[in-house]
Amino acid sequence: MLRQKRRVEPSEWRSISDRPRVLVENHDPAVGMAVQILLMEEGFEVAYCSGPGETVGRCPLVHDGVCSRAAEADVIFTSLHLGDNKHREIVSGLRRHFSDTPVVVELPAPKVSQYEDLLVGCEVVTKPVTRDRLVVAIRRALGGVEA
After folding, report:
1. CA dihedral in degrees (68, 71, 73, 78; nearest 10)?
2. Are the C-beta atoms of residues 105 and 122 closer than 8 Å to each other?
């Protein structure tokens, strides 16, 4: 089920449309922008953020704040960087503040079982992520049927 139409500031999303909104969070801008382009080609409306990045506190979820982009998203795609606790805090914050918004988490397959508690309610896509696997995971998270 898609979100109800709400006013969105132009800086957050490119346009107001009926296309599902995907927030892409990735610390690497090149990867984040590549995923953004890929998902736009697949018909999604996409916004990008770099998460906590190098500057502590850059992501409001790290300090239990609320992310305005996540508040307007239909689904959130994030990469779980295992060596950095801030990324686990982001996934926890997303689940806590946006429990009705599906979250797709990317991580290495051998690590999935180590993070089962954190991943409850999330759609998991394992590395290496391909275009098809990512799109299927996002559509499944949105309640769609696999192709």
Report:
1. 80
2. yes
Look at residue 121 and tell me whether its pLDDT is greater than 80: yes
Check residue 95 and give left, alpha or beta (phi > 0: left; psi -120 to 50: alpha).
alpha
Per 3-state DSSP, the chain is made up of helix, strand and coil in percentages (nearest 5) of 35, 20, 45
Does domain 21-141 fall under CATH 3.20.20.370? My reply is no
CA angle 29, 115, 73 (to 5 degrees): 45
pTM of the model: 0.79
**Reported confidence tier of residue 109, pLDDT bands at 50, 70, 90:** confident
Q: Which two tokens stand for residue 80?
A: 């779980």
- Enumerate the β-bridge partners of residue 103: 76
C-alpha 10: how far from chain center: 19
Alpha carbons 86 and 145: distance in angstroms, whole number: 32
- For residues 88 and 94, the answer to whether their CB atoms sit within 8 Å is no
